[in-house]
Amino acid sequence: MAKQKKTNEALNVEEALSQSEAFLIKNKKTIGAVVLVIIIIIAGIVMYKNLYAAPREQKAQAALFAGEQYFEADAYQEALEGDSIGYIGFLKIADQFSGTDAANLAKAYAGLCYAHLGKYEEAVKALDSFSGKDRLVGPAMKAAMGNCYAELGQLDKAASLLLKAADEADSDALSPIYLIQAGQILTQQGKYDDALKAYTAVKEKYVRSYQSTTVDKYIRQVELLKDKK
Q: Angle, to 10 degrees, between the axis of helix 2-26 and the axis of helix 28-47?
């Protein structure tokens, strides 16, 4: 019985192999075409990265570096729009090198330039187009947007963005700054309980920050304002 079972299994394997071979023979042209397409796609991706994307990113990074020099020198108009000696400006870097990391950073720089120039609506648009998922630059740009909304008198949006920036950064260096800014806006709105919550978070959650040693004055201010209500 066992011998018969083994014989049947062997026959089944041979039959399956024969069917597979028949399938391959019958469809070898189709299979070969599919394999060829896969090879072409892989080769195309490699060529795109090496021959197009990488050199394009390098050009964008070089242009961005020139803009950063203007930005650090507080020459925000030149950083934004370019000069007469070859630098094209953050706006054109973002447009001409769309899809590169440098172009994405150029959007952030453009937003900050607009903010420094007092063009807050343009700043918000540029900053909002920036895509950052890290825990430093992304929250910083969100906080910058919050401050721009504050300048535009849109205090609800301002406080909300600053609180989100603090939460996303979750950093002793950045979060207390954003929380205090949010607290000041909330205090201005008369939202004293929310302001106290923001200030208390600095003291309790970010005890190692410099701001945790100075936040008590803001807490006292809000408590006095609450008592006067």
A: 70
Q: Is the dihedral of CA 169, 172, 174, 179 positive or negative?
A: positive
CA distance 226 to 193: 9
What letter represents residue 19's amino acid?
Q
What residues contact residue 205 under an 8 Å CB cut-off, 6+ apart?
Answer: 175
Distance of CA 107 to the CA centre of its chain: 11
Closest listed residue to residue 186, CA positions, set 226, 127, 213, 214: 226
Mean pLDDT per 10-residue interval, the chain, length 229 residues: 44 46 51 47 44 71 91 95 94 92 92 96 96 85 95 96 95 94 95 96 94 94 86
Residue 152's nearest CA partner among 127, 106, 174, 119 is: 119
Its pTM stands at 0.75
C-alpha–C-alpha distance, residues 59 and 73, integer Å = 22
